[in-house]
Structures are given as C-alpha cells and as structure tokens.
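User: Could you check the structure of this?
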Amino acid sequence: MRRSSADTKAVILAAARDRFAKSGFERATIRAIAADAKIDPSMVMRYFGNKDQLFAAAADFDLDFPDLSSVDAGDVGAAMVAHFMNRWERDEALIVLLRSSTTNAVAAQRMREIFAAQLLPALAKVNAADPARSAGLIASQMLGMALCRYVLRLPPIVDMSREEIVSWLGPTVQRYLDSSA
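Assistant: Sure, the predicted structure tokens are below.
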C-alpha cells in the first residue's frame, strides 16, 4: 500500500525521533531510521536532505507557552516551572534535543533558537526586569533540571514529584523575573 508524501514524512519523523532518543544524534544513522520506518534510505534523503536536516525537523517543537500575563506577578515563576515540567513530559522531542545538544553543534544551535524565539517573547509579556538575562537564567534552570531528571536520571531528582520541583524551582525562576541585578 502506497503512502502519501505527508504520511511518509510523518513516518520518517516518528522513526527519527525514536531513534535519536534511543541512540543520540551521533549514533543514529539514516539507514537505521529508514529501517525503523520500513522505507528505503533514499526516501529519507529525498524528504530531508541529510541527517542534520532530519534532526532539525525531528527536533522542531513548540514550547507552547501559555499567555502568563494574567497570572499574578508573584506566581509567574512557579507557573513557568510547571509549564516546563508538563512540556518535557508531553513528548520526547525536547529530551532528544537536550541529549543531542551536549555533543552536536546543530542540535545546540537548534536549542538556542527555540529558547530565544519562544522564551524571550513570553518573558516580555510578563514584564521581566531584564528579559534577555532572565531568559538565559531560566533556560539554565529548566535545562539543568531536565538533564538531571530525564537524561541522567539522578535518583533524588527523579524521585521528586512535579509539585516538589515546582515548589523548589519556582522561587528561583521568580527571582530571575523580578531582579535586574
């Protein structure tokens, strides 16, 4: 049975996300992804060009920030941490990107682009004291937490409930929003 172009791309992307998540960028191969998708490797190249472009497409995601402008100013930090926790756990794309960005320049650039394009505008809406600095510091907290919880799987962090993480990190993120020094 023949698939449409859109269906073929979707199957390739699903296989790529799974393979990148399991193997990381360096060890994942076009051949392995094609085998997982049950297609010829030339089809992967046809739709995505090369492994870097496939990875960029597979790791393309929306942080899906809600409009936090109606949240009480003192609760925005906790709301952001809760949102990030929900986002990390919703699908593997962010974890794939995080894992790969530690060793791959393309992945690291993609992570920077996503955070710059999506976190900074969200902070501008909540009147962060210094949006660019706040974005960098918030990213350091959220990426560090995700690395420890979802990639390194450090027991104390994995054992914490989402509510505990929000209560620990929320005030720190709030300080980043409120402080200009």
